């Protein structure tokens, strides 16, 4: 029987981590039965799949791969090893041939090597997050401060690492330059460009002296361990980190400082007066809604990713305050509560119920948008009870400054924030007593709940929602409406 000749294939992918190009390639290679040893993977400027052998009009079907394999592929394509695509092709081919749990077999030589590569990429990401330092580089867009940083990653991690910095530093413009590529943030979006040079980044700025002083003040000479320091902070990163300039002097002085610490006579601990400490803490609390909003605006989101904190909106002394769950995608982008689809539905229902939105106060239990990225879309994720508890103090102070007569809880998360208890809306709906609060309460659904209903059920549910709002308007109009609890 004549042996079948396998035609050699050359796959050309974009430089760096071309995950999309690799996926498209294996979707053609695997169903066609092309063995990994017959494929040469080349990184170049003009990606082209099978230019001589397979027509572009024949798109490959998606491969049903186990989650462990997909995660391994997404990490390993960022590795700098030129053999990474061939190794991943071998893995996927074996999985497609029936070894569905191959990625979990750590003793397999191929799997072992790929896991080592994934760990190397993970370490590189960690180092970039920890050791990248921005330097001031003049004014950016619309007078915003602009910063630049230089970093030399071991692997192709820039696109994966950049969202960490846009989430952590959303309020100023910045650029990160690497030898292979660059990332740029303008307060609205990330974009990527060609690589840069270290000399394109300022050598130093005025902030670095303070950073170095802080590092020196926290350096513990009694715990000097050069091997551990080099393992955690390799010297290749030192020339981009201002605080490392102080390390040689700190190490030289460590022995003398330890001797002084040992020779120093022990001192009795200073007796602290709790009453004074509590009074000092109370004096630092915001004394107005504007001061509270400044604190909220300056605080980092508990779950990274939000563009900005979304503050409450409406007049102090509003008769009704509406408390929702958390900002959505549009609220996060615009910085205002209830401006997305659910907010538009709420505005319509308020008009039908005879409530002037501009005279009410609208806010959320959680002040930052929590989401899951799916391609270019940001899908809302419900906050956990712990996240609601984290923001509760802000909500309580906010409502204390606004001093409404009635608070309407829109949905179960708002009820949890106001009462500390998880109660089904079907059981709690209607007038409510928020124990210990200086305002009356009413519980109803969140308008986003109505948007999720089938078209056939939505009219009836919307009418019930408007009826709840009319009831809120009637309650706040009653002269005898007073504190609950």
TrEMBL record:
Keywords: 4Fe-4S, DNA damage, DNA repair, Hydrolase, Iron, Iron-sulfur, Metal-binding. Pfam families: DUF4130 (PF13566), UDG (PF03167). This is Type-4 uracil-DNA glycosylase. The lineage of its organism: Bacteria, Pseudomonadati, Pseudomonadota, Alphaproteobacteria, Hyphomicrobiales. InterPro entries: DNA_repair_put, DUF4130, UDG_Type-4/5, Ura-DNA_glyco_family4, Uracil-DNA_glycosylase-like, Uracil-DNA_glycosylase-like_sf. Belongs to the uracil-DNA glycosylase (UDG) superfamily. Type 4 (UDGa) family. SMART domains: UDG, UreE_C. Coiled coil: none annotated.
